[in-house]
Amino acid sequence: MQYEPVKNILGKIFSRSTVLRRAFYFLVDLLLLRTWHVRKKLNKIAADFPGRAVILDAGCGLGQYSWRMSRMNRNWEIRGADINEGQIEECREFFGKMGLGDRTDFRVLDLTALDETSIYDLILSVDVMEHIGDDARVFGNFFNALKKGGYLLISTPSDMGGSDVHGEDEHSFIDEHVRDGYGMDDIRGKLQDAGFSDIEIKYTYGKPGSISWRLSMKYPIMMLNASYLFFIILPFYYIIFFPVSVILNIFDVNMIHRTGTGLLVTARKK
Fold first, then answer.
1. Helix, strand or coil for residue 156?
2. What is the mean pLDDT of the chain?
3. What pLDDT shows up at residue 9?
4. Closest CA to 29 of 257, 246, 264
5. CA 164 – CA 32 distance, rounded (Å)
6. Interatomic CA distance for residues 128 and 65, integer angstroms
7. Are the beta carbons of 268 and 198 closer than 8 angstroms?
């Protein structure tokens, strides 16, 4: 299934006004489970940066995490990078209209070409690494770009059913993925090779989260890939399943999972 065309359409729809885009960010925060896990970890990391900090939203997409972080601390400078030129332009326009142009910056960038040294206090990368073939280079770029003591926070599918792959003969639900998911030892080893330490990895999307993902993401994307006419039906679909997904998200984010289809990874540059 193609996910990026759906994102592009959503971006255009919700860029028609700042009210629509803010409403979209609010709904995404409630609906998508990964935002719950990322938000919980971000709140803990934020305690280490009460003053000024420079943050890279690596693969910022539609800008929902940049928006969240820009409101967490007014002293933070948020820089977003993404390979999608249209989404970057939409972010620039929205954040400028919201009066945040002085402490946000968005640029078109392939993360394999990130070439900065000791700039960032935090790098956030949500559902990005599964799209990048040369992940070892990107991890190395992240390490170089972080300041000493800086954090890297990653959310990505695991190899325990991430991307809805449960066997060797199955393929990723999302066509744009170049890998179905990471094993804990796999991503830990790559981060260590890049120079990172204090690596913490936990499973997300346990049983409640997997059900929530199917209801909130998989089935709607399947419908939209069949026909964009389903955009008309989606509001009624979510009226029914939105509350169910929120309840499942609450369970998932407050449980410890022995396995799960997602990984939340934190690492530091010492």
1. strand
2. 90
3. 73
4. 246
5. 16
6. 13
7. yes
The Cα 166–Cα 34 span in angstroms is: 20
- Per-residue pLDDT, 146: 98
Compute CA distances 36 → 26, 119, 250, whole Å. Answer: 12, 27, 8
Q: Are 77 and 55 in contact (CB under 8 A)?
A: yes
206-239 residue pLDDT tens: 999 999 999 988 888 888 777 878 788 888 999 9
Task: Look up residue 102 and give its two tokens.
Answer: 């002085």
**How confident is the model over 38-61, as pLDDT tens digits?**
999 999 999 999 999 999 999 999
In terms of Cβ atoms closer than 10 Å to its own Cβ (0-12, 13-18, 19+), residue 197 is exposed
Name beta bridge partners: 54. Answer: 77
CA distance 92 to 107: 9
Beta bridge partners of 266: 153, 200
d(CA 247, CA 211): 11
Q: Quick one: which of 5, 1, 33 has its CA closest to 215? A: 33
User: In Å, what is the CA distance from 124 to each residue of 69, 103, 119, 237?
Assistant: 10, 17, 14, 31
Euclidean distance between CA atoms 50 and 47, whole angstroms: 6
